[in-house]
C-alpha cells in the first residue's frame, strides 16, 4: 500500500523564507500566525493526513460511493468517521472569518494544510474544498440573511457546498444552459433542470448540502448574459436555523469515473426546487467565478499534491529495488548482482523532474495564496490591487500548468516502478487516475490558456503582466548582484526574454488573426508556467545560499536546494526557446487541413 508523509519541513521553508509570513504580522489574519502556531498546525495537519486520511485513499478508490434507490448516497467505509474527526479538529475553519465561526488565519496557511489532505486523499478533500469555494461566493455576493443562514454551518462543516454549472449538452459553453428559474410568490425561485459532473452532489457526511446553481430566469437573454446564480439547499432552512422539509433536488445517478471514486460526482435533478437569488439577476457568472477562481487555485494544488505523493513512493521504491548495473564500474555494489535504481541516470531524470517540480510548485502556490490574502487585507488600495492583479494573471497558469506537470510527475513516478507500477497492489495507478481529472475540470487547461491569452495579459492595458515582468527583473538583478550561486539567474533571464517576446508577438498577431492567439495560447501558458517555477527556484536558491553556512541550519538541506535549482536551470528552463517558437508559429499549418482530412 502506498505511504505518505507530509513535507512539513519544505512547507515551513517556503512560509518562512519565500512567503515570509512574519512580514505581515501587522495584518489581522496574520497576527495570530506565529511561527510556533504555524508549526503546530502543519505538524498536526500532516499527522492527521498521513495517519487518518491516507489509509482511506485506497478504500475510497475500490469501494467508491453508493447511490441507493431513494437517491441517497453513502460514502466509502471510514469516510464519515474521518470527516467527523476533520470537523471536530477545526480543519474546516482555518481561514474562515471569525464572525462566522472561523479562526481567521491566513489563506496561505489553509492552503498549506490542504496540500497534505489532497496528497493523502484527494477525493475526501473535495467535500471540504468545494464548500470553501461556495462560502467565498456567499461572503462576497450573498445577502446578510444568506450569510447568517448558511455560512456558519458551512464553516463548521456541518453543512457542505457544491457548484452546479455543467449540463448534459454544454460544458464550458455555459451560455447553452437550460436550467430555468421561475418566480415564486414569496420572492424565491423554482429551479428546474439537470446538472452533471457535480462533485460532492449528494452524500452522507453532512446534515445539509448547499448547492450554488446557475440558471436562467424566464425572459432573460438566452446566452451567458442571462445567467443568474441561486442558492438551493438540499433541506430548506427554518427561520430558527433548524432543517425543514426536503427540497425537490436529488441525485439521479453517480458518474462512473476514471478516478476520484471516493467523491460522489452526481447527476443532479432539480424539479422545481426552491432557491434564492445570489447577487444580482443576470450577473450569475461573475458571482460563480468567485467560487471557480478559488477552485482553480485548489485544483492547481491538486496537481502538486498528486505529484508529491507519487514522487514520495517512487523514491522509496527506487531506493529498495535492485535492477541492472551502474554504467560506471566504480558505482556498482560488489556484493550484489544488481544495483538499486538510483544508479540509472534515466531513473534519476524522472525523479529529479518530480522533485524540481514539486518544490517550485509548492512555493508558487503558497506565494499565490499570499496574494489572495493581501488582495483582501493589505493596508493600502494600491497594494491590494497589485496582489489582485498578480493572482488574477497567474490563476490560469497555476491551474493549467501545474496540473499538467503534476500529472506528468505522477506518470513518471509510476514509470519508476516499471511493470509493478501498472499493478493495482502498488497503488501508483490511482495517483495517475486521480491526477488526470485536475487537467479537465474547472475549465480544461486549453480553456485556461485561452483565458490567459484572451483576457488576462491584456486586461487593464497589460498592467498585471508589466508588474510581473518588473518583479522578475528585480529578482534576477538581485540574484546577479549576490553572485547567483545556483547559476539560475542567467538562464531565467533568457527564459523571461522569450516570454516577453512571445507576449509582444501575441499582442501584434493575435489581433490580426484570432486563431494565432488560439494556436499559441497553450504553449504561452506553458512558457509562463516554466518561468514562474524558475522564478521560485531563483528565490529558493538565493535563500539557501545565504543560510547554508549559518550555525543551526541544516547545510545539506540548503545544498540540495541549490543543486536542484541548478538542475532546473540546465534541464528545464532551456525549453523556453522551443515554447516561444511554438507560440510564434501561428495558426497557418494548424488550421490548414480540411475537416475531412482528419
Notable traits:
12% strand; 5-stranded mixed beta barrel; alpha+beta; 598 residues
Question: What would you say this structure looks like, in words?
Answer:
The protein has 598 residues and is of the alpha+beta class. The chain is built from 17 helices and eleven strands. The chain has helices at 8-17, 35-63, 79-88, 107-120, 122-141, 144-156, 284-320, 345-377, 381-416, 428-436, 445-456, 463-481, 489-512, 514-547, 555-571, 576-584, 588-591; strands spanning 66-67, 73-74, 159-164, 180-183, 189-199, 208-217, 227-233, 235-237, 243-246, 249-254, 265-278. The chain has a five-stranded mixed beta barrel with strand order 4-5-11-7-6. The protein has a two-stranded antiparallel sheet with strand order 1-2. It is globular, with a radius of gyration of 24 Å. The protein starts with 7 loop residues before the first helix and ends in a 7-residue tail after the last helix. The mean pLDDT is 96.
Work out the helicity level.
55-70%
**Unreliable sequence segments:** none
How large is the count of helical segments? 17
User: What is the mean pLDDT?
Assistant: 96
Secondary-structure-based class equals alpha+beta
**What Rg is obtained from the alpha carbons, in whole angstroms?**
24 Å
- First and last CA, distance: 43 Å
- Number of strand elements: 11
The ordered H/E elements are HHEEHHHHEEEEEEEEEHHHHHHHHHHH
Main sheet attributes: strand count, strand direction, barrel closure: 5 strands, mixed, barrel
**Strand order of the main beta sheet, please?**
4-5-11-7-6
Strand content: 5-15%
Amino acid at each position: 500500500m502506498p505511504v505518505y508523509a507530509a513535507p512539513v519541513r519544505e512547507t515551513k521553508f517556503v512560509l518562512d523564507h519565500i512567503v515570509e509570513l512574519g512580514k505581515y504580522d501587522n495584518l489581522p489574519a496574520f497576527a495570530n500566525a506565529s511561527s510556533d502556531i504555524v508549526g503546530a498546525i502543519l505538524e498536526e495537519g500532516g499527522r492527521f493526513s498521513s495517519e487518518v486520511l491516507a489509509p482511506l485513499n485506497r478504500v475510497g478508490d475500490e469501494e467508491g460511493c453508493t447511490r441507493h434507490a431513494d437517491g441517497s448516497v453513502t460514502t466509502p467505509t471510514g469516510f464519515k468517521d474521518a470527516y467527523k474527526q476533520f470537523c471536530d479538529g477545526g480543519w474546516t475553519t482555518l481561514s474562515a472569518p471569525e464572525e462566522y465561526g472561523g479562526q481567521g488565519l491566513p489563506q496561505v496557511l489553509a492552503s498549506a494544510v490542504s496540500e497534505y489532505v489532497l496528497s493523502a486523499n484527494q477525493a475526501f478533500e473535495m467535500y471540504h474544498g468545494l464548500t470553501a469555494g461556495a462560502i467565498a461566493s456567499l461572503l462576497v455576493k450573498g445577502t446578510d440573511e444568506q450569510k447568517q443562514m448558511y455560512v456558519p454551518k458551512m464553516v463548521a462543516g456541518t453543512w457542505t457546498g457544491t457548484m452546479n454549472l455543467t449540463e448534459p449538452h454544454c460544458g464550458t459553453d455555459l451560455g447553452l444552459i437550460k436550467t430555468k428559474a421561475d418566480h415564486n410568490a414569496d420572492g424565491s425561485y423554482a429551479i428546474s433542470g439537470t446538472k452533471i459532473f457535480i462533485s460532492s452532489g449528494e452524500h452522507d457526511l453532512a446534515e445539509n448540502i448547499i448547492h450554488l446553481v446557475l440558471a436562467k430566469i424566464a425572459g432573460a437573454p438566452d446566452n451567458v448574459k442571462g445567467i443568474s446564480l441561486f442558492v438551493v439547499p438540499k433541506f430548506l432552512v427554518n427561520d430558527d436555523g433548524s432543517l425543514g422539509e426536503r427540497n425537490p433536488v436529488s441525485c439521479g445517478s453517480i458518474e462512473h469515473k476514471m478516478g476520484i471514486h471516493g467523491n460522489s460526482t452526481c447527476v443532479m435533478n432539480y424539479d422545481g426546487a426552491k432557491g434564492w437569488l445570489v447577487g444580482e439577476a443576470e450577473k450569475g457568472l461573475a458571482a460563480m467565478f468567485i467560487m471557480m477562481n478559488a477552485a482553480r487555485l485548489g485544483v492547481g494544488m491538486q496537481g502538486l499534491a498528486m505529484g508529491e505523493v507519487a514522487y514520495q513512493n517512487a523514491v522509496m521504491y527506487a531506493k529498495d529495488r535492485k535492477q541492472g548495473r551502474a554504467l560506471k564500474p566504480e558505482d556498482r555494489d560488489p556484493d550484489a548482482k544488481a544495483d538499486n535504481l538510483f544508479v540509472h541516470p534515466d531513473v534519476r531524470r524522472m525523479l529529479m523532474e518530480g522533485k524540481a517540480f514539486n518544490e517550485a510548485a509548492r512555493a508558487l502556490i503558497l506565494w499565490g495564496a499570499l496574494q489572495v490574502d493581501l488582495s483582501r487585507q493589505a493596508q493600502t488600495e494600491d497594494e491590494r490591487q497589485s496582489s489582485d492583479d498578480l493572482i488574477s494573471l497567474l490563476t490560469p497558469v497555476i491551474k493549467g500548468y501545474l496540473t499538467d506537470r503534476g500529472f506528468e510527475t505522477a506518470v513518471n513516478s509510476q514509470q519508476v516502478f516499471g511493470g509493478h507500477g501498472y499493478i493495482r497492489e502498488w497503488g501508483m495507478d490511482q495517483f495517475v487516475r486521480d491526477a488526470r481529472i485536475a487537467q479537465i475540470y474547472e475549465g480544461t487547461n486549453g480553456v485556461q490558456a485561452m483565458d490567459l491569452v484572451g483576457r488576462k495579459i491584456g486586461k487593464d492595458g497589460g498592467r498585471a503582466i508589466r508588474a510581473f515582468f518588473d518583479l522578475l527583473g528585480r529578482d534576477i538583478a538581485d540574484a546577479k548582484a549576490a553572485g547567483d550561486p545556483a547559476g539560475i539567474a542567467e538562464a531565467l533571464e533568457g527564459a523571461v526574454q522569450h516570454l516577453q517576446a512571445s507576449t509582444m508577438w501575441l499582442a501584434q498577431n493575435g489581433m490580426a488573426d484570432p486563431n494565432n492567439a488560439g494556436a499559441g495560447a497553450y504553449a504561452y501558458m506553458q512558457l509562463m508556467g516554466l518561468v514562474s517555477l524558475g522564478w521560485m527556484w531563483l528565490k529558493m536558491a538565493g535563500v539557501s545560499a545565504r543560510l547554508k553556512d549559518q550555525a543551526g541550519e541544516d547545510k545539506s538541506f540548503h545544498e540540495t536546494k541549490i543543486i536542484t535549482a541548478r538542475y532546473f536551470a540546465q534541464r528545464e528552463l532551456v525549453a523556453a526557446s522551443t515554447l516561444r517558437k511554438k507560440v510564434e508559429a501561428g495558426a497557418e499549418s494548424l488550421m490548414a487541413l480540411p475537416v475531412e482530412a482528419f
